Structure formats: structure tokens, C-alpha cells
């Protein structure tokens, strides 16, 4: 009974980690797209010569 519970626990942990990593990949892709769109929009619509939309 003990090894069966350990295998089930390991399967749940790996499933949860895979699900979380997939969500993190989607979040990273969305952030990258938003950053690129903001960079392109500000560089084509810059007034005063500053094309950066971030402060650093």
C-alpha cells in the first residue's frame, strides 16, 4: 500500500508541475507579445524623439 501511495503522490506532483509550467510558458509568451507591441507602437508614434515606453 505504501509504494502505491508514493507512486500516486509522485504522479500528482509531476502532473501539477507540468500544468504550472505550461501556464508559465503562456504567461511568458503573452508578456513578450505585449512588450513587443508596446515597443513598436511607441517607436512609430514617438513625439519628442523618445521612443521608449519603459522608464529604465
From TrEMBL:
<feature type="transmembrane region" description="Helical">
    <location>
        <begin position="26"/>
        <end position="45"/>
    </location>
</feature>
<keyword id="KW-0472">Membrane</keyword>
<dbReference type="InterPro" id="IPR043727">
    <property type="entry name" value="Lmo0937-like"/>
</dbReference>
<protein>
    <submittedName>
        <fullName>Hydrophobic protein</fullName>
    </submittedName>
</protein>
<keyword id="KW-0812">Transmembrane</keyword>
<keyword id="KW-1133">Transmembrane helix</keyword>
<dbReference type="Pfam" id="PF18919">
    <property type="entry name" value="DUF5670"/>
</dbReference>
Amino acid at each position: 500500500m505504501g509504494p502505491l501511495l508514493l507512486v500516486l503522490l509522485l504522479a500528482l506532483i509531476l502532473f501539477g508541475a507540468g500544468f504550472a509550467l505550461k501556464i508559465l510558458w503562456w504567461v511568458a509568451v503573452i508578456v513578450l507579445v505585449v512588450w513587443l507591441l508596446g515597443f513598436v507602437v511607441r517607436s512609430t508614434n514617438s513625439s519628442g524623439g523618445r521612443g521608449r515606453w519603459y522608464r529604465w
